[in-house]
Amino acid sequence: MLRVGVLVSGGGTNLQAILDAIDGGIIVGAEVVAVISNNENAYAIERARKHNIPAFIVTPKAYGSREEFNNALLETMNVCKVDLIVLAGFLVKIPEAMIAAYKNRIINIHPSLIPSFCGVGFYGLKVHEAALKRGVKVTGATVHYVDEGTDTGPILLQKAVEVRAGDTPEILQRRVMEEAEWVILPQAINMIANNIQAI
Ligand code: GRF
Fold first, then answer.
1. In the structure, how many helices (H) and strands (E) does the chain have?
2. Whose CA is nearest to atom 11 of ligand 1?
3. Number of structural domains in the chain
4. What CATH number does residue 7 fall under?
């Protein structure tokens, strides 16, 4: 059974998609053993608690230094015996020591078709604002492995979503979540849990 740790900072709709996919048999061979947030007010924590999943608040402001925070974050993974770390809207830089300790075992969901609209500064609504400003007709979401860069690791899955006339960043964000993020993130976890190779 693949032990999954999900790192969150916000509403947790991607976490919810993972939990629903496990309950619905779309993900087999994996279980979420911990949800960790840097934001004590993240609704994602409430979603975890409703599912009786251990939830941890690990926030830089609770530690004397970033190094102490980094150590606490990695220690939480180790204590929970996490096999796969899933970044689901986690807005804190992942420590290099964690990337090294979990080489090819950290995945992230990004709300664009990488290499478009990604990298430093491209997160949340900013991604969709940039897509609309550029005038792309197709956008989407990407699941990729996390390496030392920002949104630069090997791509595992992508799913395209059409941009429609009159889209606002908020409308487009919701469509990308519903039609792409909430589909490919569970799919990616299931692939990893069952050693299914990407095409
Ligand atoms: C999603 O849009 C995801 O693409 C991005 O952060 C957001 C997280 O949303 N990485 P939620 O907390 O899963 O609702």
1. 7, 7
2. 12
3. 1
4. 3.40.50.170
Residue 198 lies in a domain: no
To test the pocket of ligand 1, the residue of 86, 181, 185 to mutate (highest count of ligand atoms within 8 Å of its CB) is: 181
Pocket of ligand 1 contains residue 109 by CB under 6 Å: yes
Q: Is 28 a domain residue?
A: yes
Query: Exposed, middle or buried, 155 (CB in 10 Å: 0-12/13-18/19+)?
Result: middle
Query: Which among 6, 7, 9, 14 is the best mutation to test ligand 1's pocket, defined by most ligand atoms within 8 Å of the CB?
Result: 14
Question: Catalytic residues, which ones?
Answer: 110
Query: pLDDT tens per residue, the chain (199 residues)?
Result: 999 999 999 999 999 999 999 999 999 999 999 999 999 999 999 999 999 999 999 999 999 999 999 999 999 999 999 999 999 999 999 999 999 999 999 999 999 999 999 999 999 999 999 999 999 999 999 999 999 999 999 999 999 999 999 999 999 999 999 999 999 999 999 999 999 887 7
Report the candidate in 172, 162, 16, 174 with the shortest Cα–Cα distance to residue 86.
Answer: 16
Structural domain boundaries enclosing 160:
2-193
140 close to ligand 1 (CB < 6 Angstrom): no
The partner residues of 139 in beta bridges, in order of sequence, read 161
Distance 125 CA to ligand 1 centre (A): 10
Closest residue by Cα to residue 57 from 83, 84, 29, 38: 38
Residue 54 Cβ contacting ligand 1 at under 6 Å: no
